[in-house]
Give the backbone structure.
Amino acid sequence: MKIFMEDPSRSFATRVNEMIGQNIDGCYQCGKCTAGCPVAYTMDFPPHEIIRLVQLGRPEEALASHTIWLCASCETCTSRCPKNIDIAAVMDALRILALGKGQTQAEKEISLFHKLFLEVVGRFGRVNDLYLMGKYNLLTLNPLRDWRLGQKLFSKGKLKVTTPRMKNPKEFQEILKRTQAFEGKKA
Amino acid sequence: MRYAYYPGCSLHSTASDYQQSIDSVFKKLSIELTEVEDWTCCGASAAHASDLLLPVVLPAKDLVKVEKMGLEVLVPCAACYNRLRTAAHKIRENPDLRKKVKEILQADFQGSAKVRHISDAVVNEYGLEAIGKLLEKNLKGMKVVCYYGCLSARPQKIVAFDDPVYPSYLDRLIRTLGGEPIEWPFKTECCGGSFSVSKKDIVLKLTRDLLDMAKSLGAEAVVVDCPLCQFNLDFRQEEVEKKYGVHFGLPVFYFTQLLGICLGLREEALGLKKLNIDPFSLLESKNLRQ
């Protein structure tokens, strides 16, 4: 079988490579990443196939996959790749691209959790578990999720209602704003 | 000995027992920790899954402070440790990134701050020999598995301070304390980490595998040095048992809790009551109750 790689197909791989300073064209599909992946069992495309999709210039399938969200970032793949490709970073790049297109349907709860997590950090400077869980449960229409666990954590003094106030919240928020502005400039 | 200290968000909430035991043990060892002033979250998984710059900027903000303190910074959470160390590494390797971060922070991280996992400082710097001299009790007859997880082992070139596939620093500590660390194949397997809320089934499956292996090899407890691993293995354990129709009943200790017991510290000072799976019947059977 012959595979013709047209120009637009290369642009996807180039984009991913540039984002994270990798050369995924080096991948020869040995499958070692997939063999060691603890979550491959529940992925729609195993990690090596995601890499192949990027090589072949098929962003639609890669960005719509469940895989990119299910990656737990344990970095087993990265540490074992014989071509030294940072596969976990590739997954990050694909999540970032998917997020940029608003394409988070495959695992919308995972991406919502990330979004709320960063929202909480932006607001308080630190994670406030109660606020994060409360909002996540409301937005996923599952208000009683982990209710008992929450009660147990609370009774053991492991769930704090408040986080210590930042001494300089304004400076922190400025930093976040400048970070966002920088990203905007680049895109 | 004196270090800067970056606790990370968990240590003030779901891992407050880890914090308590660190405070007590470090006091006993006369190691002084100075908390990084007004530190903020490292960004955890959410930052690097959502953005290219944010996961570097957030840690760098506090690394600048650490650099000014002129101390090495100790981190008790494997995830924070990984993010801080990765950010420092990226900035050192990439002058262009350093420039960007400097512009955003309006402060320059020069790259000199050294980030260390708290276990690294205890085991490799304070040293097992010195610890051995301070022990008042021992873990005689206690069989444990030491579970290291992902984030203080991988990526190995950036974060590992022991063998990245089969580390042994916690095993060596347990042996110094008189306990019996069991050799097992899942030392650096993944527990599912931050999916504990957003994709719980993955965590239940992975922790089932871990606990099952530990139990089948005769472990009576698990020893960890990461708050995410502890939470998943301990606070999700009953759900795992229910879902898979198994029984483990394995207490999951922070290494500082067992170290504290052997240093003769009071149970209350080590947050043992905050563990989910009851640790006291095991401690009692080994004559370690006060």
Notes: The first strand of chain B starts at residue 2 and ends at 5. The mean pLDDT of chain B is 97.
